[in-house]
Amino acid sequence: MKRLILAAILATAPAGAGPAPAPAFPVTIEVDAGRPGAAVDPVWRFFGADEPNYATMKDGRTTLATLGALAPGRVYFRTHNLLTSGDGTPALKWGSTGIYSEDADGRPVYDWTIVDRIFDTYRARGVKPYVELGFMPEAMSTKPIPYQHDWRPGSGTLRTGWAYPPRDYARWEELIHQWVRHCIDRYGRAEVASWYFETWNEANLPQYYWGGSREQFFRLHDAAVRGVRRALPEARVGGPDSAGAGDDFLGAFMAHAQAAGTPTDFLSFHAKGQPEVVTDATGSHVRMGLNTHLKAADHEFAAIAANPAFRSKPIIIGESDPEGCAACQGPANAYRNGTVYSSYTAAVFPRLLALAQRRGLSLAGILTWAFEFEDQPPFAGFRQLTSNGIDLPVMNMFKLFAKMTGRYVPATSDHQLDLDTVMRDGVRGAADVGSVASRDESSLAVLVWHYHDDDRPGPDAAVRLHLRRLPPALSRGALVTQYRIDDRHANSFAAWRAMGSPLAPTDAQRATLLKAAELTTPDARPTRLALRSGTADLAFDLPRQGVTLLMVTPAAQSGATTRRPVAG
């Protein structure tokens, strides 16, 4: 507990000290709503966590409900430890379901009770499983003792009995087969066919998640896929959810699957950034590693693009995060509670899509490995979407993504750094003020972010937004609603610090935090947009690490006041 409290205190520290911010710098963004392009695919709708049992707990249920409401029936959740032995008691980077054991005569005993509770919790909240087939039940492990790890932030051993190959691959396959049959009986064939099934996690990191050889993992994967497909021939199977470590693992996996004839409906890998604490004459601050994140993804994209048999497969980045360990704490992770995390998310998703498109690939999903940590101190410094059931700024970022529908339209900012520059240098000099936009038959959504790798003060961006060729449905009048995530909007962490960073908020303080967490607008109500022949101009200031979404929708004929600018 002392460690957690210390992390909470560290997380309250302000960004590195520096000179007063300079005056706002001008930014021009052009949106051509008359050129609809590719359909908006909600690639953001994938999430996950190490700890499966948090899902059924009070704040886990609340967080899942928020995720499910973003895109009911289309949100997916991946978790480790669905096959791990134990009674379901969670811990950091640990969970269990007790799904498999053996009787005194060595015969398999299946118990679906805990895993059913987890999946029932998902489905009741509009969330579907992205099923990770792992880890190894104790009775099946080739090295079962010690079984549960003693890992904790900063110490302990992670790879123990749960991480080893099975002593009997036929029993492993049969476990998977029986589980999928059970899921079909419980949830229906069509429902289970809509899930994703993959084997294990980061088997290319033997020091952490896999205690066998590469060939043993391939054998494990083949047996798991056979078990799934024997129960449900149309099931969606893939993998390998390997770490983006700059190695040849994904290429070897594809070569093996092709040679063995193992069905592969999708490919999955992980990509992470690398924040660090830097110190200069003005003090210390966190510097993010956006370029590291993008380079890791592009290395795997290149391997897929080079294989003609797999380059047309859908791709899921099965973990895509600013760094690698959600349950770890420390000064370099102090970005997590505030708006650096939300603005980083806004800046990285479009670029991951752009990298895939450059390679001629189909990126179907980007999975954020963040959920919640039950019964921990508030804002304790974990990588999570909510803290004690209270939405963090990054959760509100996904609410903004969910509002973008229809088709993308061109959005060009004179301060959006080009892809190659960000890949090479990150965002270390000029700030990255970028935009993406989409439209449907009657509305337009424009997302704008103001991101910098350095978590320190900087000038606002004075944005001038030029909208052209707006949808005909807006010709008789339009309203603008602006949503904001910054130091003063949709920011529970800022509200918590303002009230003195209480470790045990009272009921009244919690109510204040819940209110501060809401995705709100700077204006009390939408404002009427002044249109001129299908064009309009807007102006607003956007703080550093801020994100805004402007929704332009048809206006009912009323006495609403017409305003040209949207106030910052």
Automatic annotation (TrEMBL):
Residues 28-526 form the Glycosyl hydrolases family 39 N-terminal catalytic domain. Transmembrane segments: none annotated. Residues 1-17 form the signal peptide. Keywords: Glycosidase, Hydrolase, Signal. It holds the Pfam family Glyco_hydro_39. The keyword Metal-binding does not apply. Belongs to the glycosyl hydrolase 39 family. This is Beta-xylosidase. It comes from Sphingomonas kyungheensis.
